[in-house]
Structures are given as C-alpha cells and as structure tokens.
Write a structure and sequence with these properties.
Length: 284
C-alpha cells in the first residue's frame, strides 16, 4: 500500500503545517475532506453526468472517435465496469429520474429513453426540439431547446413541451427541491421562485454548473463554489475548488462526481482522520 501526503499551510499568529496522510489523493472543499477516486479515463471529454442510485450507474456523454460525434455510456461506480449505449449518435443531454430510475437523453432531433435490457436509447418524442439540457426533479421534467435557448416543461411522457416563463438565451439551469428554477443567461444569473417571479442574482454574473441537494443550491464559478439564495438574489462563497470541472453532480451519502479532461472522479467524504500539526521553525 502506498500513501499520499498532503500539506496544507494554515496562516495564523503561529504558523503551522497540517499534514494529511492518506492511501489515495484527497480534495479539500470548504471545511470538508474527500477521498478522490478515479472511476475511468477511457472516454474522451466526458460530461453531462447523471447518477442512478438504484443501480449505482453513472451515465455521461463523451466524444466518440468511431461515431465522429458525441456518444453516451455509463460506468458502475462499484465495479467500475463501463459500457457504451447504442441507438443515438448525437447525444447532447443526459438525465436520470431519481424516482423511477428511468434514463433520458437529448439530441438535436428530440428526446430519447434508455432501455437497460437492450442497451439501446430510442426516440420517444419532441422531434422538433434540439435538446441540450434535461433536468428531472420533483416528478417533473424540464429541458432547454437549443433552437431558441428557452426552458420548457415536458408533459405526456415526453410528447409535449410548454414554455416556462420568458427566459431567453438560457445557457444552463437547474430545478431545486423547492421547485425554484435557477438559470444563467447572457444577462446574468437568475432564479424563478417556484417557476414564477424571477429574481436576478446581485453577487454572480455567471455560473458554469448548478448543483442542488435537498436543502441548498450551489453554483460553480471561476472563483469557486457559491451557495445561492434564490429569494434574496444573493450568493455566498463556500469553497475554493482545486479543479475546474467539465461536469459536476452530487451522488449518494455525500459523494460528488466530476469530470476533468478525459477523467471521471468520485469524491467520497472522509469522516474521520488523524491530524498531525507540525510547528514551523521561525528561523526558516
């Protein structure tokens, strides 16, 4: 077994070095330590991560040299077995319905649903929509149509879409567990309270990724990770990230999944550890 030593300098009146001795690389996000585990590096530019807790499969899209376009695949986070999914050649969006385990993909010719028995994704509707983002939460599905960069709520098992509000030039969005819609446009970062009244965030101009758990919503920016207050239109920085994710989502039990370059990582919270504080020699 090998060990990794991480040194963290703590600035105080009495300078100290904090040494973490672990059997794998770690990441520190805010006040919490995570064990970093590489899930796979076999796929080019993976993104649009979506996690199914019932099967422990992590779905994603990637650039496929054989297809000469984007493909889709999944990896089991326990066994690390990975498989490519057939049936769609221009994948743009990925989402998992956490209540049913159903997996959906978006393309420039509509919505696809994955059949785990045949390992094929088949088109089911919305053929006139260019879907590049899907969010499923609270038993509701929302998408961004790249034809006009507006948000739609999907009805009738993927057969009909109804425009949500008048948000324009939407580049990314998320729906939290309180049914608030967080979104970013060319004009800034906004939140539609319960899908209605829109509040502009006064602290953030851009967010590259939204993450929501049952209590809070966070945004990834150039400057780190921010907790977003939808009602007040404010944001509070909670962590500096040591990586710039292509995609990032929450998993089970405090896990975080993210992709960088051709790598997909799993961050697992470290709940107990020994800390050795070494005083620095003031003469050095």
């Amino acid at each position: 077994m090998f060990y990794v030593i991480t040194l963290v300098t703590i600035l105080s009146a009495e300078a100290k070095l904090r040494v973490y001795l672990t059997d794998s690389p770690i990441q520190k996000i805010g006040g919490r330590l995570y064990k970093e585990e590489l899930l796979t590096n076999r796929f080019k530019d993976p993104k649009e991560l979506a996690y199914d807790s019932s099967t422990r499969n992590l779905y994603f899209m990637y650039m496929d040299d054989e297809l000469q376009n984007s493909g889709r695949a999944y990896i089991n986070i326990i066994t690390k077995n990975a498989n490519k999914i057939k049936g769609i050649s221009r994948n743009k969006a990925t989402a998992v319905d956490s209540d049913t385990g159903d997996v959906y993909f978006g393309s420039d010719n509509g919505l696809y649903k994955y059949d785990p028995v045949t390992n094929i994704a088949s088109d089911i509707g919305l053929y006139n929509m260019n879907i590049f983002k899907i969010v499923i939460r609270n038993n509701e599905m929302f998408i961004i149509d790249a034809n006009n960069h507006m948000i739609y709520k999907i009805y009738d098992l993927g057969l009909r879409g109804v425009k949500v509000g008048h948000m324009k030039t939407v580049m990314d969005f998320d729906v939290d567990y309180k049914r608030n819609i967080h979104f970013v446009t060319m004009c800034g970062v906004f939140c539609a309270i319960n899908g209605g009244e829109v509040v502009k965030n006064t602290d953030l101009n851009v967010v590259y990724h939204f993450l929501s758990d049952e209590e809070k919503t966070f945004g990834v920016t150039d400057d780190g990770l921010y907790e977003i207050d939808c009602w007040n239109g404010t944001a509070n920085k909670v962590a500096t990230l040591q990586f710039y994710p292509r995609s990032i989502i929450f998993g089970d039990y405090g896990d975080i999944f993210y992709s960088v370059d051709d790598n997909i990582y799993r961050l697992r919270p470290i709940n107990s550890y020994l800390v050795y504080n070494v005083k620095k020699n003031k003469n050095n």
